[in-house]
Write a structure and sequence with these properties.
This protein is mainly beta and about 375 residues long. It is about 10% helix and about 40% strand.
């Protein structure tokens, strides 16, 4: 249809011509905005194993760019999973063991939809993708060992809004009271934890005298320990304050977190658990861990035999209780130790032979070793 304008110069006629021309071009302009616009979502990793935003909304089928900035003292990543798959992916990441660092702790899984690899302190990385066309809640999480239990959030793909913060089951429970107006808070860097953490809690960081897959665990009673996931063993334990990561981040890769307490136990054996023959050093493989009342229970294998180890503080704070479960033990199990490792031993099962603990297959199914600190011992 041809449109002709008269040469009348009345102001109303002139305005109408401008409006009509704008309407003719409007479909083209609107289509361009839909197909070429990218929604930018900015996230920050902040002290205390947190993202500054625990949730956000995007339109179905839209293209978004997530920018992750690391304002923390340790490295983090960001993994977006299928709805409901966060915990499964976190467990898969924990099971990577010594392969984890090379894979940025991102498991090969169909449940992983998009990811941003390891981001060092003070750095930023981004990823651009098109979100699904149907509504849903897509979790995002840091899959570094020990982080995914509390460091996660939710991407709401929706044309509407989100549930009230207090009712949202897709965000960390401890964040519901911390995060207020606008569903995000502003980061004020000041310490390792912006809130007072309550033990037990887990921290993945390079530790002295341990492999690259070290896990530091803070317990009640001012007790802490270092678990080496690569070697599948308890390395040492200390009493006092937890750790200071500043030395580690001053020169990453060459320094370690600083222990703030006194080390009272240090494993000096080649490997503490033996199968059948006491001289035989088993082949170990880390399978991950689960939380039992907030305490990590480590799962690993000895010569392909499943072992579960849960470490708790003694009620009086004088040492540790290590509970082992070897449900399919078919051969005798030995627990070895060094008399100079800083603790006295007691056991719920088995018998001591020449300073070593021997358990029958039946006894090895479930037993507890109590380690009590030797007074005045420093290791």
């Amino acid at each position: 249809m041809a449109i002709r304008f008269s040469k009348v110069s009345h102001p109303a006629i002139f305005l109408w011509k401008r409006v009509l021309l704008w309407l003719l071009f409007l479909p083209t302009v609107f289509t361009y905005a839909q197909t070429n616009s990218v929604t930018v979502v900015s996230l920050s990793a902040i002290p205390g194993l947190r993202y500054d935003r625990v949730r956000f909304t995007v339109k179905p089928g839209s293209t978004i760019r997530i920018v992750l900035t690391n304002a923390d003292e340790m490295s983090h990543n960001l993994v977006i999973t299928e709805p409901g798959a966060r915990e499964e992916v976190v467990q898969q990441a924990s099971a990577l063991g010594t392969k984890g660092p090379a894979m940025n702790y991102i498991p090969t899984s169909s449940k992983v939809l998009w990811s941003i690899s390891e981001v060092d302190p003070g750095q930023s990385k981004s990823i651009t993708f098109t979100v699904p066309g149907s509504v849903g809640v897509y979790p995002y999480v840091c899959t570094f060992p020990g982080h995914g239990v509390v460091m996660y959030g939710a991407m709401y793909v929706t044309d509407g809004g989100m549930p009230p913060m207090r009712d949202d089951l897709n965000i960390p429970p401890n964040r519901k009271e911390q995060v207020m107006a606008g569903d995000h808070d502003r980061n004020e860097r000041h310490s390792m934890h912006p809130y007072r953490p309550v033990p037990p809690y887990v921290y993945r960081i390079l530790m002295p005298d341990a492999g690259p897959a070290a896990i530091a665990v803070s317990l009640p009673q001012k007790l802490s320990y270092c678990w080496d996931a690569g070697a599948c063993r308890l390395r040492y334990a200390w009493q006092g304050d937890f750790i200071d990561p500043i030395d580690y981040w001053d020169k990453k890769g060459e320094r370690f977190a600083k222990i703030l307490g006194t080390v009272f136990y240090r494993d000096k054996t080649e490997f503490p658990l033996r199968v059948d023959e006491i001289e035989h050093i088993p082949t170990v493989n880390f399978k991950g861990y689960r939380l039992v009342k907030s305490y990590p229970e480590f799962h690993y294998t000895l010569d392909e035999m499943d072992v579960f180890e849960l470490i708790l503080p003694k009620e009086d704070g004088t040492g540790l209780e290590r509970t082992f479960r070897i449900p399919k033990a078919s051969k005798p199990i030995w627990f070895t130790f060094d008399l100079g490792d800083g603790v006295h031993y007691a056991t719920s099962a088995g018998k001591f032979i020449d300073g070593k603990l021997k358990l029958s297959p039946q006894e090895a199914e479930h037993f507890t070793i109590t380690m009590t600190r030797t007074e005045g011992e420093k290791l």
